[in-house]
Each structure stands twice: as structure tokens, then as C-alpha cells.
From TrEMBL:
NCBIfam families: F_box_assoc_1
Region Disordered: start-end pairs: 1-27
Domain F-box: 31-70
A Pfam family the protein falls into: FBA_3
Superkingdom, taxonomy of origin: Eukaryota
The name this protein goes by in its record: F-box domain-containing protein
Organism: Brassica campestris (Field mustard)
Length: 388
């Protein structure tokens, strides 16, 4: 009778379940932290920020520089977005739109949108530089985190009475953002630089690396590890382009092309510095052929506008996508707006409308169609978890 019970099928199943439970207890019942962080770094920033509430360990690990850099490397491999800000007397608003694969004449939907209360967003000092945007009064805006980071004052060498211009650069080799600060009310060869996130204070550039100059524009452009802004040398009667190597912190002078217009926009084009100017339909492109010899080439293109009676000052050049398309958009609008993409290689123009999105946006924010909105456009924006 005893042997009969031992050979019963249900007894064998029970024994197997007991053995399996012992094996399960011998195995780790959690995922290793390094594997967890690897998985998290592949998620969108919105999901990562939500998972900060899971535990103190996750919250502290997500803010580690190693995790932020890992997320940044994956973010740069994704398609960048078009960040657009709208300003009105009722507030400032942020939209993120797709930048590529939008057919001509189509209506575009946003990835996300939100309202911000900082009043400095209507006058940015930079494009989106690896996910960060420089604002007036030495503030850094991270649109992904929806945070504004106040930078320390440059110190006694730069008083508010002197006046200065600040520029945001990025060193892709070391993965570091730097802010350059240069006096504007007098000529100087000792600008200051601040490395973000390095627990450093402002440093004066070593004497001899920088020509004596004064900036003539508050807006700079950084690409391929080089920061560019317009300036004037002491004793000179014309402007030049000052280049600043973000990694080595060395300066170089680049002469403007002859016969240039006063309104020029600096962009990267086919891996080189280029200047763009446009007068209604005509777009001129100056490409730097040789920085040491100050040689430029010039090309002209035709921008096909959606309306022939469009006022000349209604549309502005906004930058270039990573695919090489020039971006044009109105400076203000009421009911709807559009963005024009000019492909200089194909000499073609595509138009993207945002009418449906703006109607939903106005209803949500309580704005009527009579409210005029001004806009800024930030091409090639990527997500970033950087925080001071």
C-alpha cells in the first residue's frame, strides 16, 4: 500500500514542484543594477523620469554622469526633433515635432507640448546644443527635463556695468558643455569659460590664446566642437568671425567673404562652416573652402513661397536640419503656421502645416485666434538628462 502511494502520478508532480521551488530560491530574484540601467538608457526620457519614483536607488543611479552620458550617446543615434516655442502675452509654450519624413503639404502632429513660465525663452542665445539651450542672464534650459539652470556670475573680472556676451559650446570628444563669456563694452583678450557639471568655477583663458576683440553679436553657433560668433578686432573697422575650439580653448580668426550681406546666419553645411542670407525668394549660401586662406564659394537658390503676396519680413531663416535642408518659418502668426524646408541639393521646397495642432492647442490654453503668437525654432534637438 505504501509503495502504491509512492508511485501515484500526483505524488510525482508534488515532488517536482517542491524541487522546482528549491531551485528558484537558489537563483537571484532580482535583475542586476547594471543591467537595469542598460535597459533604462534605451527608453525615452519621459519614461526614465517617471521611473525615478520607483526607488531611491533608481533615482540616484539615473542622475549618475555615467548613465547620463550613456543615454546621451543613444539619444544622438536617434532622429532629432524640431523644437518650437510660442510666446504670447498669456505665456510661453513648447512643442516637439518630427523633423524628417514629412511629405510636402501634409499636416504634422507633435510628440509633446507643455507650458513654461520662464520669460527668457523668447530671446535665446543659442540653438539646441546637444539638448541644451542658452538663455539670457546666464541660464541653461533643458527642454527635456523642463528645467532652467542658473549659472554662477563670472566674478569680479566681469561686472554687470561692463556688459558681456555668452555662448554655449560642446566638446563631443569629452562629452562636455562649456559656456564662453566675453566682454562687449571694451576690447579684451581674457574671456572666461565655465565647464558645465564639472563642479568648476569660471576660468580665465590663458593669455596669448585669444586675440584682443569684442563680440558684435549675442548669438553664437557651435558644431563639430567649434564655437563661432561675430566680433571686431581692436583697431579694425570691420567684423570678423571668431572661432573657439571648445576642447583646446584656442581662438582663430576667419574673414568674411567679400560682398556679403550684413544679415548672415552661420550654419554647418557638408561638414564646413557656411553663411546663409535670403531676400524673399533668393537664398545665398557662402561655404568656407579654406579657413586658413579665408576662401569662400557662393551658390544661389530659389525659395518657393506658399503665397506670392507674403510680406518680406514675415518669413525668416531658422537653421539647417541634420539632413542638410534649410528651414524657413514665419516670425509670428495667428490662426496657423507652416515651416518650409529647402533642399539645396535638389533645389526643391516642401511645406509642412501645423493648423490642426494649433487649433487644439488654442482650445486647451484658452487662446482665441485673435491672439498673435511669436515663435522660435530649434532644429536638431535631442533629449538630454543633463542637470547641474
Amino acid at each position: 500500500m505504501r509503495d502504491f502511494k509512492k508511485n501515484q502520478p500526483w505524488m510525482n508532480k508534488k515532488r517536482r514542484r517542491l524541487e522546482r521551488s528549491r531551485d528558484d530560491r537558489s537563483q537571484p530574484n532580482h535583475i542586476p543594477l547594471d543591467l537595469t540601467l542598460e535597459i533604462l538608457s534605451r527608453l525615452p526620457a519621459k519614461s526614465i523620469l517617471r521611473y525615478q519614483c520607483v526607488s531611491k536607488l533608481w533615482s540616484s543611479s539615473i542622475t549618475l554622469p555615467s548613465f547620463i552620458n550613456s543615454f546621451m550617446s543613444r539619444s544622438t543615434s536617434r532622429s532629432p526633433t524640431l523644437l518650437v516655442t510660442f510666446s504670447s502675452s498669456w505665456g510661453d509654450y513648447v512643442f516637439s515635432f518630427p523633423q524628417h519624413q514629412i511629405p510636402d503639404g501634409s499636416t504634422c502632429s507633435s510628440f509633446y507640448s507643455y507650458q513654461i513660465t520662464n520669460t527668457d525663452c523668447d530671446s535665446p542665445r543659442s540653438q539646441s546644443v546637444q539638448g541644451l539651450i542658452l538663455l539670457p542672464v546666464l541660464k541653461i534650459w533643458n527642454p527635456t527635463l523642463r528645467r532652467f539652470l542658473a549659472l554662477p556670475h563670472p566674478g569680479k573680472h566681469m561686472s554687470s556695468r561692463d556688459g558681456w556676451s555668452s555662448y554655449l559650446g560642446y566638446d563631443s570628444l569629452e562629452g562636455k558643455h562649456k559656456v564662453l563669456c566675453v566682454l562687449t563694452n571694451k576690447y579684451s583678450d581674457q574671456p572666461q569659460v565655465l565647464t558645465l557639471g564639472a563642479q568648476e568655477s569660471w576660468r580665465i583663458i590663458t593669455k596669448g590664446r585669444c586675440p584682443v576683440h569684442s563680440p558684435t553679436s549675442e548669438y553664437g553657433r557651435c558644431f563639430n566642437g567649434i564655437l563661432y560668433y561675430t566680433a571686431r578686432l581692436r583697431g579694425a573697422g570691420h567684423d570678423i568671425i571668431m572661432s573657439f575650439d571648445v576642447k583646446s580653448e584656442n581662438f582663430n580668426i576667419i574673414k568674411f567673404p567679400e560682398g556679403r550681406s550684413r544679415k548672415l546666419h552661420m550654419i554647418p553645411y557638408e561638414g564646413r562652416l557656411a553663411l546663409v542670407t535670403h531676400d524673399y525668394h533668393v537664398v545665398k549660401l557662402y561655404s568656407l573652402k579654406d579657413a586658413h586662406g579665408h576662401e569662400w564659394t557662393r551658390e544661389c537658390f530659389v525659395l518657393h513661397l506658399p503665397c506670392e503676396n507674403l510680406q518680406r519680413d514675415c518669413i525668416r531663416f531658422r537653421g539647417i536640419t541634420d539632413a542638410g535642408e534649410f528651414i524657413f518659418a514665419p516670425c509670428r502668426f495667428k490662426e496657423a503656421f507652416y515651416i518650409l524646408y529647402l533642399d539645396p541639393r535638389r533645389s526643391s521646397t516642401r511645406e509642412v502645416f501645423f493648423e490642426r495642432n494649433m487649433g487644439e492647442f488654442r482650445r486647451r490654453c484658452g487662446l482665441s485666434s485673435s491672439h498673435t503668437l511669436t515663435m522660435d525654432v530649434f532644429p536638431n534637438h535631442i533629449e538630454s538628462l543633463f542637470s547641474l
